[in-house]
Amino acid sequence: MSEPLPMPPVTHRADGGERRVGVELEFSGLTLDEAAALVAAAVGGAVSAPGRYERSIDGDPAGAWQVEVDFGLLKELGRRERHRPELADAAGDLAEDVLRLLAAHVVPMEVVSPPLPLGRLAMMNDLIAELRAAGARGTGEEWAYAFGLQLNPEMPDTDADTVRHYLQAFLCLEDWLRERADVDLTRRLTAFAEPFSKAYARRVIAADYAPGLDGLIDDYLEANPTRNRALDLLPLLLYLDPARVRAVVDDPRVKPRPTLHYRLPNSEIEHPDWDLGVAWGDWLVVERLAASPARLQALCAAYAHFLSQPLERLVGDWSQTADAWLREHRLR
To answer: How far apart are CA 237 and CA 159, in angstroms?
Structure first.
C-alpha cells in the first residue's frame, strides 16, 4: 500500500466535512475491460456497461468510478442499439466503426474517480501501479499521444474571498507550474489548457481587487468563456451561479461541481517513478499560498511589479523568480 500523501493546510470544508479530490487519469495500452477489471479489483466494486465504450464500477462508498474511451461522440454512439435493418441505422453503425478505428490510435482510455476524501487519495498510487504493471502507457510513449492527469480538488469554502484567493494564487504560480509540469509538446499543440492572459492576471492580482461573487464571475467569464485553461473555474462558477454562467457558456461538457479543475499535468504512467504525488505536490503549493493571505498578497505585489515592467517581462523569468520566493517563504 502506498504511503499517505501530504495534506493541504485546509483539510475540511466550512461545513466540517473532509475535503475531497476527483482524479482523471488518461493512458493507452489496455482494453476498456482490462482497465475496468483493475479498477473494480482495487475498489471492490462491480462492473456495468452503460455503453460499448464506457464502464461504470459501483460499490465504492465515495461513488461510482468511470472507465471510458475519452471521445464524446463515440460514447454517444456506443449507447445506442446496433444492427437495425434501417439504412440510417446501418450508416450510423458504419460511422461508429470508422470512429472507433481512428480513436484506437490517438484517443486515450480514461479512469475517472469519484470525489475521494483526502485521506483516501493515496489509493490512486496503488491503482496507478496496477495499471502500469498491466501495460498502461502515458503521453511520452508515442508522439501522437496527448494524455493528461487532471485534479478536481473540492473547495474548502465557496465565498468570494476563498475563490479569489485560489485564483490569485494560481495566477501567480502558473508560469512556475507550467515549467514544473514540462507539458508534453503534443498536448501543447492541442491547446487543451491555454494560459490566462497577462491582462486578466494583472486585473485579478491587483491590490484593490476584491469583488463579490457576481463581479468575480462576470470578470472571469468576460476573459475566459472557455474550458481551455490550465485551471478551469467553469464547473465551480456553474455550481455557484448556473444562470450567469449558462448565459455565456453553453457547453454541455461543463458540469456544476464545487471544485477547481486543474488540467495541466502530463500522464506519465509508463515511468516507474511517476505517480499522483508529482502533480499533487505542485498543487499543494497553490493550496498553501491560497491559505496564507499575507504571503499571497506579497507575491501578488511582486508579480504585479514584474508584469508592469516591459523589459523585465521580455528578459526576465518569472518562474525562476517565483521558485526562489517560494523557497524563501518555505512554501515548497
So the answer is: 11
Q: Which residues neighbour 90 within 8 Å (Cβ) at sequence distance 6 or greater?
A: 84
- Nearest partner of 224 among 208, 256, 201, judged by Cα: 201
- Using alpha carbons, list the distances in angstroms from residue 157 to 13, 100, 164, 180: 6, 42, 11, 27
CA 271 from centre of chain: 20
Contact (CB, 8 A) for 121 and 153:
no
H/E element, 141: none
What is the mean pLDDT for each group of 10 consecutive residues in the chain (332 residues)?
92 97 95 96 95 92 92 55 50 53 66 98 97 90 70 98 98 96 60 86 98 98 96 98 97 95 94 95 98 98 94 83 97 93
- Helix 123-134 crosses helix 276-290 at what angle (to 10 degrees)? 150
Contact (Cβ atoms closer than 8 angstroms) between residue 217 and residue 244: yes
Grid cell in block for residue 35: 482497465
Coil/strand/helix, residue 65: strand
Please give the model's pTM, rounded to 2 decimal places: 0.89
DSSP letters for 93-124? HHHHHHHHHHHHHHPPEEEE---EEGGGTTHH
